[in-house]
């Protein structure tokens, strides 16, 4: 079982992408320093993105109460036990539920006036945010949107905030917003956000904010982070918060990646990919519910856009502009091909061990954009030449934040997959991956080594060790 990782977030080995830049950055005075810095930080960052953060937490919490605002208690459980309190709770949920319904149906219908009528006329900062939300959803190919009143807590807003809001009553509700993108999502994305409501004189209630009391570790929806621009590719959809990003180029690259990945995996997958291009790294971290700075050296991630994982969950590639912008075009395309392989192979909901998920994604990326082996596997080969040949395929810990051998883990995983392809053929590598992916047994990889490749994991590891020694000493 691969309980030890978070398959909702898989990241690219930026190390490789950077190291192989065929169009190096201008030889500015500090470029070598910057490069070293990025390399050093890479391991940590990749590990953080991969396993440590959301993954462990997400897995542990699956099936139980989510963190932060993730899974809120039912209305009944927060209602006061006395009759008056219960009556007020029912009133709030009825009023709030109908407001949300109007807001969502106005968005879907493109009815600006009806939408604006749900927004608190006294709200100052929220007026602009509400308009942004409306415009963002209208820019997306929205197939459906539902806003469901999940629960509330009349004491959640601080007294000062309630005073500021005024009105006869104000309260904070947890609202599940679910939306589906036409032609891209089989299932809606569902995310819980805190929504402030206020009742004004005359008894009319309004929505007054989407940003009170946001939990620090909550994943935030992309449409709440800023004004989006949308670019349709042939099979891709690029959604960007960056007013300056070249979205046509991103769409073209993603379309190419979809085609290149399909050359290996065939065309029996959706071949539809949604790519998020934030303006800042912090926005990327908000999407992932990650602490500030934790993705400092991650180029991109593939993530299930959800608080819980399930089959059919919408998956997004989220790039980190802070890192990717400093990478060559080829480096960026390697990263996108790597991530698209994760999308095509349903890696976010797969039981495949990390060495196979990451090694396979790199296999496809470097097959598409060949780079000299000695450049990609530099860290690993240094170890091997020093006599430190890996004893086993890298486990989940090798891909973790604390791993000292993160780059080597990626490199060795890549070469394990390349060895399978070289020795048995690419078709067998794909069959092997699928067998492990589809296995419901804890011994999935071992079974696949036997059933697909006619060997054992032990024998394969011995072959792989010899292979690494030969390549490292070439
Ligand atoms: Zn990856």
**How would you sum up the global shape?**
elongated
DSSP helix count? 19
- The portion of residues assigned to helices is 40-55%
Query: Tell me, what is the CATH class of the largest domain?
Result: Mainly Alpha
Task: Report the sheet-strand fraction.
Answer: 5-15%
| Class derived from helix and strand content | alpha+beta
**C-alpha Rg, in Å?**
24 Å
The average pLDDT score comes to 83
CATH domain fold name of the largest domain:
Neutral Protease, domain 2
CATH architecture of the largest domain: Orthogonal Bundle
Strands of the widest sheet, in order across it, are 1-9-10-8-7-6
Bound ligands, named by name, code or SMILES: zinc ion
Q: Give the low-confidence spans.
A: 1-8, 13-80
CATH superfamily grouping of the largest domain: Neutral Protease Domain 2
Structure description:
- This protein has 474 residues and is an alpha+beta fold.
- The chain has 2 domains: 43-50 and 226-277 and 295-473, Orthogonal Bundle (Neutral Protease, domain 2), CATH 1.10.390; 66-218, Nuclear Transport Factor 2, Chain: A (Roll), CATH 3.10.450.
- 47% of the residues lie in helices and 14% in strands.
- The protein has 19 helices and 10 strands.
- The chain has helices spanning 14-19, 31-52, 54-61, 75-78, 83-109, 112-116, 125-139, 159-165, 247-265, 281-288, 321-324, 329-344, 354-368, 373-376, 378-385, 406-424, 426-438, 444-451, 457-472; strands at 9-11, 142-153, 169-181, 189-199, 205-209, 229-232, 236-240, 273-277, 300-304, 315-319.
- A 6-stranded mixed beta sheet has the order 1-9-10-8-7-6, sandwiched between helices. A 4-stranded antiparallel beta sheet has the order 2-3-4-5.
- Strand 7, helix 9 (247-265) and strand 8 form a beta-alpha-beta unit.
- The protein starts with 8 loop residues before the first strand and ends with a helix.
- Residues 1-8 and 13-80 have low confidence and may be disordered.
- Bound molecules: zinc ion.
- Zinc ion (ZN) binds next to strand 1, helix 12 and helix 13.
- The site of zinc ion has 7 residues, from strand 1, helix 12 and helix 13.
């Amino acid at each position: 079982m691969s309980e030890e990782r978070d398959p909702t977030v898989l990241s690219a080995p930026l190390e490789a992408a950077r190291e192989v830049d065929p169009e190096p950055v201008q030889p500015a005075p500090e470029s070598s320093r910057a490069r070293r810095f990025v390399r050093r930080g890479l391991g940590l960052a990749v590990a953080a993105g991969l396993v440590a953060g959301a993954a462990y937490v997400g897995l542990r919490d699956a099936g139980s109460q989510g963190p932060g605002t993730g899974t809120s208690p039912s209305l009944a459980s927060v209602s006061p036990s006395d009759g008056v309190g219960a009556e007020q709770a029912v009133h709030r949920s009825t009023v709030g539920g109908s407001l949300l319904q109007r807001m969502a149906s106005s968005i879907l219908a493109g009815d600006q006036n009806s939408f604006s009528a749900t927004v608190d006329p006294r709200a100052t900062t929220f007026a602009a945010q509400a308009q942004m939300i409306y415009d963002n959803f209208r820019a997306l190919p929205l197939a459906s949107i539902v806003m469901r009143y999940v629960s509330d807590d009349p004491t959640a807003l601080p007294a000062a905030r309630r005073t500021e809001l005024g009105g006869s009553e104000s309260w904070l509700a947890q609202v599940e917003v679910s939306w589906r993108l036409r032609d891209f999502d089989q299932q809606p994305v569902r995310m819980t956000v805190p929504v402030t409501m206020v009742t004004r004189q005359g008894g009319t209630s309004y929505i007054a904010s989407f940003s009170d009391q946001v939990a620090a570790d909550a994943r935030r929806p992309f449409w709440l982070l800023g004004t989006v621009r949308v670019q349709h590719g042939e099979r891709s959809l690029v959604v960007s918060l960056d007013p300056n990003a070249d979205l046509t180029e991103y769409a073209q690259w993603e379309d190419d990646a979809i085609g290149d990945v399909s050359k290996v995996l065939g065309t029996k997958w959706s071949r539809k990919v949604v790519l998020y291009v934030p303006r800042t790294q912090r926005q990327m971290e908000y999407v992932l519910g990650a602490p500030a700075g934790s993705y400092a050296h991650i180029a991109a991630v593939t993530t299930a856009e959800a608080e819980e994982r399930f089959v059919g969950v919408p998956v997004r590639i989220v790039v980190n502009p802070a890192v990717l912008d400093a990478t060559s075009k080829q480096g960026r395309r390697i990263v996108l091909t790597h991530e698209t392989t994760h999308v095509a192979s349903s890696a976010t909901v797969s039981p495949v061990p990390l060495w196979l998920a990451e090694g396979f994604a790199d296999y496809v990326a470097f097959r598409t954009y060949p780079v000299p082996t000695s450049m990609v596997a530099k860290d690993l080969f240094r170890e091997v030449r020093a006599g430190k040949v890996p004893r086993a395929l890298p486990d989940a810990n090798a891909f973790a934040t604390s791993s000292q051998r993160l780059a080597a883990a990626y490199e060795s995983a890549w070469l394990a997959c390349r060895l399978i392809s070289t020795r048995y053929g690419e078709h067998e590598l794909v069959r092997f991956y699928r067998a492990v992916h589809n296995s419901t047994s804890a011994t999935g990889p071992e079974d696949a080594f036997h059933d697909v490749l006619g060997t054992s994991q032990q024998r394969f590891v011995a072959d792989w060790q010899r292979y690494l020694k030969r390549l490292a000493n070439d």
